[in-house]
Amino acid sequence: FTNQMGQMRFKLCCSQYAHIIPPNQRSKSRFLNIDILTGWSMKVLTASDIVESTFGKYKKEISKNPMKGITDLALIIPAFTSNLLDDEIKKAIDSCTCKMLKEWKAEYLCDSLSVKRKIALN
């Protein structure tokens, strides 16, 4: 485990993931490293649990219509990670126009399977 952590430090030090490098290990009293490394590992695992939970909720929402794929419903993902008040939701809805949504969708999303099927069959 500690050997793999050392290798991970080396691989990540100059990458875009440098901020999640495991903590330095002591050269003496190596058994004292376990507490530091397990604390770091728990933080990383907790963060990945949050991401998995968020995407699980999103997948549950889009599974209601499996032919749709990734649609503008991707915009609901941030709502799964926060406690929004009714006033905040209303303000967000009022500040976003349909034109803005269409532009975002055209820039960031591709056609879903159902749209591709309609184009192919027409």
Helix content: 55-70%
Secondary structural class: mainly alpha
Tell me the number of strands: 0
**What general outline do the C-alpha atoms trace?**
elongated
Whole-angstrom Rg: 22 Å
Q: What is the element string, with H for helices and E for strands? A: HHHHH
Count of DSSP helices? 5
Report the uncertain regions: none
Structure commentary:
The protein is built from five helices and no strands. Helix content is about 60%, strand content about 0%. The chain is an all-alpha fold and about 120 residues long. The radius of gyration is 22 Å and the shape is elongated.
Describe the secondary structure blueprint for this structure.
Blueprint: H1 2-12, H2 33-62, H3 86-95, H4 98-108, H5 113-121
Keywords:
58% helix, 5 helices, 122 residues, mainly alpha, elongated
Compact description:
With 122 residues, the protein is mainly alpha-helical. Helix content is 58%, strand content 0%.
